[in-house]
Structure prediction request, 131 residues.
Amino acid sequence: MTVLIVDDSKIVRRVLSNTLPRYFKKPEWPELTLLEAEDGLVAMEQMKNNEVDIMLLDWNMPNMNGEEVVDTVRANKAWNKTRIVMATTEGGKDSVLKMIKKGANGYMVKPFKEEAIFKTLDTITARMPKK
Prediction:
């Protein structure tokens, strides 16, 4: 399992990178690789160089925002299997619906608790092939 954390906040990246290993410490997920990017441009480089299973994506970032990342990922057929979870402060109904329509697979609103992260990941990983 390869997870890419995309957020311009180093603190948020650290929180997620410390939380995710607890979730993926299950027999069906024997190996976890965590990648990080501080904006969408760095995320695109990570996508080019790695097979990313899940992307946890902030919306408001410099250089290339989350909406632009979703558009770019969904326009590339090679990346269609990547599950995208918005992890953002943009929690209004219109924002959520907009990103789901664009191709996000899940949504978490900051600040998020471990239980919310785990619940979202349960939904996202339910239909993923086990390795």
Remarks:
- The chain has a mean pLDDT of 91.
- Helices lie at 10-23, 40-49, 66-75, 93-102, 114-125.
- The domain at 2-124 is CATH 3.40.50.2300 (Rossmann fold).
